[in-house]
Amino acid sequence: MVIETLEKKYTVLRNLYAGDHTDRFVCQDETTHRVYLMIRVRERDWIVKTLGFLTDQVNNREFADMVSCFFSGESLYIVMRHSEGVSLTEKLDDEVCTLTERIAVGRSILDQLLLQRMPEYFMRDCLDADRILLSHSLQVGFTYELKDIVDYGAVSFKDVQKRIASIWKILFAHELKIKTLAGVQKFIDNLNEGVYADLMSVYKAYDEVCKKIAGMSDDDLKKPKTKAFIIWEKFKRIWPYIKRIIALALLVAALVYLVLTIKNLWNTGTEEKIFDYIGTLTIR
């Protein structure tokens, strides 16, 4: 399949998605041989509602992932950068990533969002563990779906914060489970509550979290802070005293038993026995 404009031809390399209103392809520019992600909007009403918004994004030079958009036939095509790499989901499922690496991935995600200054709709769309792509050096790239592009105006920064929170829950799932990083949990709670005014505020808050983690000892990072673990740690601290009390109680019990036994034996040995009968003979 070839998609043509007045100036370019794109060869479809792979079909990614076919929906009721949009389709997604991986395409190659026949002249430059560059590979792009392309989204086709087929719904006429959607095209009318989104054309101005998309044109503004093409003109936004900082939004490097947005390349161009054009008409071909009755469809609108959105051309976006095609990022290579494995998804965050695959990375975390298939490999053991250290805490340091995951902290760096989180910072890189926020770096990319800040650098591109993309609108809230695109941020919410790419902030998915399956659409965040990582290179071998853990550089972050994004891919996009835009399945509901017509609803771009309904997305707020609070929606974006919730998406960031969902990614951080995945990034730090182990530490959150054993409760070793209280700062990360507080950061996620604030995101879910929509506390931050803008992306820079989110970035600064995460930077503070990173500084606190850097100041923690290896022992603090490894020791769980769950209720069960805290109870167990307290129990281990008082166990030597409990053992002494138990040993003392056993000793006292043994002494009491010994005294009672001796007393019973003494009483048995001194007790006078009187017999009234010997066989069938009655003693008078």
Structure commentary:
This protein has 284 residues and is α+β, with helices and mostly antiparallel strands. The protein has helices at 44-59, 88-94, 99-116, 120-126, 157-171, 173-178, 182-193, 199-214, 218-222, 227-270, and strands at residues 2-4, 9-18, 22-29, 35-41, 66-72, 75-81, 86-87, 132-134, 140-142, 277-278, 281-282. The strands form 3 sheets. The chain has a 6-stranded antiparallel sheet, with helices on one face. Strands 7-8-9 form a 3-stranded antiparallel sheet. A hairpin with a 5-residue loop joins strand 3 (22-29) and strand 4 (35-41). It is elongated.
Q: How is the topology of this model organized?
A:
Blueprint: E1 2-4, E2 9-18, E3 22-29, E4 35-41, H1 44-59, E5 66-72, E6 75-81, E7 86-87, H2 88-94, H3 99-116, H4 120-126, E8 132-134, E9 140-142, H5 157-171, H6 173-178, H7 182-193, H8 199-214, H9 218-222, H10 227-270, E10 277-278, E11 281-282
Antiparallel strand pairs: 1-2, 2-3, 3-4, 4-6, 5-6, 7-8, 8-9, 10-11
Helix pairs in contact: 3-8, 4-5, 5-7, 7-8
Mean pLDDT: 87
Q: What is the β-strand count?
A: 11
Kindly provide the radius of gyration, computed on alpha-carbon positions and rounded to a whole number of angstroms.
Answer: 36 Å
Distance between the termini: 131 Å
